[in-house]
Fold this protein.
Amino acid sequence: MPAGSDLSRQPPWQVLASRLRGRLLLPGDREYEQRRRVWNGAIDRHPPAIARCADAEDVCYAVKFCASEYLAMTVRGGGHNVAGLAVRDDALMLDLGIMNRVDVDPTARLAHVEGGALWRDVDAATQSFGLATTGGFVSTTGVGGYTLGGGVGWLMRRCGLAIDNLLEAHMVLADGRSLVANENQHADLFWGLRGGAGGLGVVTRFTYRLHAVGDVYAGVVIYPVDAAHDLLRSFRTFTPEAPDALTVMLVFTTAPPLPFLPEGAHGKRVVALAYCWSGDPALGAGAAAPIRECAEPLGSHEGVAPYAAWQQGFDPSAPAGDLYYWTTSQFDAIDDAMIDALVPRAAEPADPFCEVHVHHLGGAVARVTGDATAFSHRDAPFFVNVIGHTNAAERFDAVHGWVRGFRGALAPFARADMQPNFAGEMNDLIAHAHGSTSRAKLAALRAHYDPDGWLAPVRAG
């Protein structure tokens, strides 16, 4: 397998440019600097060229060009992956950003989504019909990478992960061939697409199952950080038996100057209970009451809202261009010792923008058998994401150290593995994103469908 592209010889870029319906961007072009940048401002890489593919035919030709020139490639959908998998210094970037069409069949309850779409594109198209499928907690996340890594979100416990709603994928293989993968065609490949974290081909169109989701009852309730122990104990007790229509998250964050918070809380470390009830909105007010009522809140903002609007509620906390590094841990239980390790570190971050997210799974996620897809971690009841975030480059080293120290403190209580979408660096994606059986099966699939390793995510640096 090649170690990387040989760029000592300049590829004939003009040949590629002449065949694309979209544009080929080279260093020095006006748009090049914008498109090489991904969501995470800590990633600073310079691909030799960027192919802004206009359609699946552009993707086919660009992939064939790479094969003929022995050139590695990366795929940019939303560019939201924290490890920067969309861009490498030695690989052509296939930028699918203008391939963002979403077609909805409301009768069949299907959405056909191009590979460069963002979740806000999908939500906007489906909500007009009172339909939705599981999307990211941040609506600017790209559909492609999110889905290929599994896809957790507010609807997962009722509707399943994104991969559980993926019915088929139109894709281009590393040799330029096009095919459709689903349960009946190329079923082995379809298994790997669902949670394998990419590297099996370029998906140009996804087809998702949709569900009846219009208005939801959702909101945030904010507490002083002193309430964290009580909130976590209530969370661990209540969530295993919570209704499928309810997804809950505890967020350690720094209180912004929200109008429903007392002025004295602004800028202070707090814990937010965030939840979404996707059942009958009339029944949502008390859905999270066992957690909500365990402590006295500082303030709250709750009520009925369109699902698509709630989906954008966390967007302001994840602006593009800031510097991020994060890690994740999975847990069979949240015991008192784990809480004692978590709370003081979450209360004293390296930067006020740093957050800690405490999640639960279960529901529809856990009812799919573990070997049905490449996603290996359905049976983990809890996971914790430690989000390092700063807008000041001089603080990034401290933020990185805080995240790594946090992970070490949680390690005695955690499983060894993690979800692909929250792997903060390539070593974690390679070593911890899949169980041994799935890892071996994925390696065999990549050897078959991409024997030279031009698309394998482990190639990304």
In short: Residues 13 and 182 are 35 Å apart (CA to CA). DSSP finds 14 helices and 18 strands in the chain. The two ends are 16 Å apart (CA to CA). The first strand starts at residue 23 and ends at 25.
